[in-house]
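2024-03-11 09:14:02 DEBUG pipeline.ingest accepted 1 chain
2024-03-11 09:14:02 DEBUG pipeline.ingest length=89
2024-03-11 09:14:03 DEBUG pipeline.predict start
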Amino acid sequence: MVSAWGNETVHLAGLGIVVLLVFAAFWRIAKAIEKHPALALMDGSEIITYHKLQLAAKGNPSLPIDSQPIPDPVLGKSNLLIEESDEES
């Protein structure tokens, strides 16, 4: 019985598959960057803002936030941040 770990052909075939997968991944990333250059330069929050601006330009309203905050079951307080200026006035 011949072990696959000692076979040079198995090593080269595995290395070839890994190189092929890495090349394919970089190829897809390069095509996506070429197709959408503005999105390629943004991080997550900027992409969300960009899509909101696109929807606003099409005349779609933004999503309303009319729900009440959910209290924290451990502390019994709301998860929302309270501005200090509101508390001091």
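2024-03-11 09:14:41 DEBUG pipeline.report Residues 8-35 form the longest helix (28 residues).
2024-03-11 09:14:41 DEBUG pipeline.predict end
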